[in-house]
Amino acid sequence: MWDTILWIIAAIVGIIGVVRILQRDIIWGAALIVLALLIGPGGVSLFT
User: Fold this and answer.
1) DSSP string, 4-47
2) Domain for residue 44, yes or no?
3) Would you say residue 47 lies in a domain?
4) Domain range holding 16?
5) Tens digit of pLDDT per residue, the chain (48 long)?
6) 7, 13, 17: which is closest to 47 by C-alpha?
7) What pLDDT score was predicted for residue 14?
8) Is residue 11 part of a domain?
9) Are 29 and 41 in contact (CB under 8 A)?
10) In a domain, 22, yes or no
11) pLDDT score at 21
């Protein structure tokens, strides 16, 4: 159950990061994408 919730949160943060990059806010966009990769259970998770 927690994996699903973390995956959803990571997906939302990643999408926001992509939108920020498209708005030419490269630093915030990259930071959000890295954060999404750290949160997501499919990647390197901070919680495992």
Assistant:
1) HHHHHHHHHHHHHHHHHHHTT-HHHHHHHHHHHHHH-TTS--TT
2) no
3) no
4) 2-39
5) 777 888 899 999 999 999 999 999 999 999 999 999 888 766 655 655
6) 7
7) 93
8) yes
9) no
10) yes
11) 96
* Half-sphere exposure of residue 17: CA atoms within 13 angstroms, side-chain side: 16
User: How many other CB atoms sit within 10 Å of the CB of residue 10?
Assistant: 21
Residue 22 near residue 32 (C-beta atoms within 8 A): no
Assess contact for 39 and 3: CB atoms under 8 A: no
Q: CB-based contacts of 20: which residues, under 8 Å, 6+ apart?
A: 28, 29, 32
| C-alpha neighbours within 13 Å on the C-beta side of residue 10 | 20
User: Is the CB of residue 28 less than 8 Å from the CB of residue 20?
Assistant: yes
Question: What whole-number distance in Å separates Cα of residue 33 and Cα of residue 17?
Answer: 5
- Number of structural domains in the chain: 1
Predicted model pTM: 0.80
pLDDT at residue 48, as a whole number: 57
